Amino acid sequence: MGSIAAEQNVEVLVIGAGISGIYMLYKLRELNISARVLEAGSGAGGTWYWNRYPGARFDSESWTYCYSFSKDLLNEWDWKEHFAPQAETESYLNFVVDKFNLREGIQFQSRVSSAHYDYSHNQWKVTTESGEVFNTHFLVTAIGSLTNPVLPRIPGITKFKGTWTHTGLWPKEGIDYAGKRVAVVGTGATGIQTIQEVAKSAGTLTVFQRRPNWCSPLGNRKIDAKEMESIRARYDEIFSICKTTPGCFVHQFDSRSVFDVSPEEREAFWEKHYYEPGFGLWMGNFRDVYTDKKANALLSEYVAKKVRERVKDPKVADKLIPTDHGFGTRRVPLETQYLEVYNQGNVELVDLNEESIERVTEKGIKTSKQEREFDVIIYATGFDPVTGSFNAIDIVGVDGQRLKELWAPGPKTQLGFLVSGFPNMLMAMGPHSALGNFPRSIEYSVEWIANLLGYARDNGISVIEATEKGQKEWTDHVRTCSEGLLVNDVDSWITGVNSNVDGKKTRTLVIFNGSAVDYRARCDKVARDQYKELSLKI
Ligand code: NAP
Predict the structure, then answer these.
(1) pTM of the full predicted structure?
(2) Which label site among 241, 350, 370, 419 has the fewest CB atoms less than 10 Å from its CB?
(3) How many domains, the chain?
(4) Structure confidence by residue, pLDDT tens digits, 59-94
(5) Are 358 and 389 in the same domain?
(6) Angle subtended by helix axes 225-233 and 235-242, to nearest 10
(7) Is any atom of ligand 1 closer than 6 Å to the C-beta of 187?
(8) Ligand 1 centroid from CA 357, angstroms
């Protein structure tokens, strides 16, 4: 006779052992609050555990992306490249987990399927896919913004007899694509990293592109011991710069308008930023390039010229130049010789606006024009954005309210941390919070939650909830901050769109588009005022 496992009780249950969940556990330990982390994967790292596709690496400088909370950690870890590859980052995050003895606080291979609030006991009942049940006073979601991979809606995907995968589910043992006939579907940041890497050794590479994306060079290099020492000496300065920029990067917008300078000066400015490492061109541009269509058109034309210079065949170059959105109005993928891939004889770019995919067959992909045969098909087709990781869990609050239903027209939150009707559920990097250079925002988000939980413990608070008023104000504020930004006129994960997900075909406001500096100031004020703006009950 099988036995039913006893339900387990825990003060704080954290879902996810990515960068947020790891640090959350560290902070809760520091506060002496008992906590358990449930993680779906068999290892720590979240995004950097799952996304092990070829070419996966940081687009933020390694030394701006790492945790800043521990001097010892900063002293002990040497970054080997300015933009670290996935394997290095996964090792780093495991190093952090082991350095701070966090591993035994994380239960791996435990995917949470539901979280139901029990009003009479003021606790959350959390169930995993394998049927384990946890009762927890506080529930912290640390489940990421781009977590649940989405396959395209193409008939026949599973009929393919060769090897196929989504980039976000790349197998640990790898896929041998050297010398093989490879297809990549999707040309977002992930597709671009995959394509430029796979092109180095595939026999043939066929890229299926629905819409091109503007991209700019990554400018990666190795870091030797001497340079690492100089970076280390500047860590305080680096992190304080990140605290002053709207997106928490080291790149700062220029206070001038595009139209304040001559065409020659403008060109020289863009030329400098195009070739500098990282997001300089995206995040270090003139102040009006993402609010003024004419300014943005000039910038886009500059980047289009670069595409035409780098891609030999003008017809192919034209296909790689976006016409439906301006530079920087979607997340800009950073690349290393990506455009030059299309100069290789063994690479074909299939423009899905000219021939659409009809279905995947046993042998390959059939478009409206022809069937092409492949050994490997890679879907770099993105994620169910921002609310997707919440929608994947059956989250039920007071009076049987389902979070997925409440948020169907778009998320409602107070400060991105709390939702009215979902007491004691705290979201690290929830919808409507400032994202940007993720770990910078993660550290803030986790510290804010930890401070609130410490305050609750010290003051005998047993219920923490958003107020309807506070939630409405914040949701309205998120809307106000988005007004006039060109990014909100474009379909992308930033506007909550994924054409392959029901209910996500139209734009919603899923992230806070204002400055992270303002976001933190607002949240700091709430903490300074002893959380009076929230609903706290003894
Ligand atoms: P994505 O930006 O959503 O791109 C998905 C791609 O798949 C798009 O090109 C999309 O075309 C295409 N697609 C979707 N359905 C399709 C279909 N049925 N047929 C053909 N093409 C289809 O996803 P992602 O590239 O995984 O990137 C998501 C985000 O993850 C990035 O923006 C970035 O924030 C993050 N990321 C970060 C890093 C890093 O830091 N290094 C690396 C990778 C990703 P459409 O454009 O037409 O929709």
Answers:
(1) 0.97
(2) 370
(3) 2
(4) 999 999 999 999 999 999 999 999 999 999 999 999
(5) no
(6) 60
(7) yes
(8) 17
Residue 417 CB partners (closer than 8 Å, separation 6+): 426, 427, 430, 433, 445, 448, 449, 452, 466, 523
Residues 445 and 296 in one domain: no
List, for the chain, all residue ranges whose pLDDT scores fall below the cut of 50: 1-2
Q: How far is the CA of 42 from the centre of ligand 1 (A)?
A: 25
Query: Are 393 and 375 part of one and the same domain?
Result: no
Where are the extended beta strands (E) located within 284-356? 334-335, 347-351
Would you state the torsion angle of the CA atoms of residues 194, 198, 200, 201, taken in this order, to the nearest 10 degrees? Answer: 170
Give the number of the atom of ligand 1 that is nearest the alpha carbon of residue 382.
Answer: 23
Do 410 and 465 belong to one domain?
yes
Cβ(80)–Cβ(57) under 8 Å?
A: no
Cα 382 to ligand 1 centroid, rounded to whole Å: 4
Q: Which residues pair with 509 in a beta bridge?
A: none
Residue 191 Cβ contacting ligand 1 at under 6 Å: yes
Query: Domain check: are 226 and 315 in the same one?
Result: yes
Is 373 in the same domain as 431?
no
For residue 145, the CA-to-ligand 1 centroid distance in Å is 13
Question: At which of 333, 360, 379 does a domain end?
Answer: 379
Q: Which residue has the tokens 């910038």?
A: 299
Expressed as residue numbers, the domain containing 92 is 8-148+385-476+512-537
DSSP secondary-structure letter at 402?
Answer: B
What pLDDT is recorded for position 10? 96
Whether 412 maps to a domain, the answer reads yes
Residues 46 and 18: beta-carbon distance below 8 Å: yes
Helix (H, G, I), strand (E, B) or coil at 342: helix
Q: Which among 379, 396, 417 is the end of a domain? A: 379
* Pocket flag, ligand 1, residue 146 (CB < 6 Å): yes
Q: Which residue is it, tokens 């579907």? A: 185
Whether the Cβ atoms of residue 437 and residue 411 lie closer than 8 Å to each other: no
Q: Give the pLDDT score at 456.
A: 98
Any domain includes 153: no
Ligand 1 centre to CA of 499 (Å) is 11
Is residue 152 lining ligand 1, measured as CB closer than 6 Å? yes
Burial of 356 (0-12, 13-18, 19+ CB in 10 A): middle
Based on the fold, state whether residues 307 and 403 are members of the same structural domain. no
Q: Residues 75, 93: one domain?
A: yes
210 lines ligand 1 (CB under 6 A): yes
In a domain, 44, yes or no: yes
What is the per-residue pLDDT for 6? 86
Q: Is the CB of 66 under 6 A from ligand 1?
A: no
SS (H, E, C) 225-285: HHHHHHHHHCHHHHHHHHCCCCCCCCCCCECCCHHHCCHHHHHHHHHHHHHCCCCHHHHCC
Mutating to test ligand 1, I would choose from 89, 145, 167, 210 the residue with most ligand atoms within 8 A of its C-beta, which is: 210
Q: Does 484 fall in a domain?
A: no
